[in-house]
Amino acid sequence: MKQILFLLFTCLFLNTNAQDVAILKYNGGGDWYSNPTAIPNLVEFANTNIKTSISKNPQTVTVGSEEIFNFPLVFMTGHGNVFFSDDEATNLRNYLISGGFLHISDNYGLDKFIRKELKKVFPKLELKEIPSNHAIYNQTFKFPNGLPKIHEHDKKAAQGFGLFYEGRLIVFYDFETDLSDGWEDEIIHNNPKSVREKALKMGANIIEYAFKN
């Protein structure tokens, strides 16, 4: 039965031709809904600069829903606790191995929770730091030094981590930088234009990479 469901979900994903993204809603009490202007601003930037045609009103999908298979890319952020049930972990795993992509942006405080929950999804996979020569840093916009630093948290370098499944990057996790804060309306964090531009360009690279791979 599980194999049949997986095949059905895979067909659903592969047959969708929508060039859209979604925001991931999860349980555990963390504020999955934080940074509400981030994705709309990133979508506008991507549509203008890398010629995507993403809906300007991103939908929300839950971890365990069938609807997640309608989107080639889902975004996740927050400051607090994350919890995936066994069924949700299985659903997310099926989504990712059938072609989906997850971008996680640590909004400060997410790290210890998301690492634990990702182990439910892929018990045998380890988050690996992604080298600066990886394709995700070298799409339309080039980041020769890897992940740009957007927000200061603990005076640590920005790091981009990934989960790889059969050689394909399926999860990109930005840590100690908070890309999604850099995508928000300028008035919210008062980031200089140059900082917001770096964040948006890196976000556009993530979209471009996910859509191509």
TrEMBL record:
Protein name, entry field: DUF4159 domain-containing protein
Phylogenetic lineage: Bacteria, Pseudomonadati, Bacteroidota, Flavobacteriia, Flavobacteriales
Organism of origin: Polaribacter pectinis
Superkingdom of the organism of origin: Bacteria
Secretion signal span: 1-18
Keywords: Signal
Claim: Signal is one of the keywords in the record: yes
InterPro entries listed in its UniProt record: DUF4159
DUF4159 domain span: 21-211
Pfam families (alphabetical): DUF4159
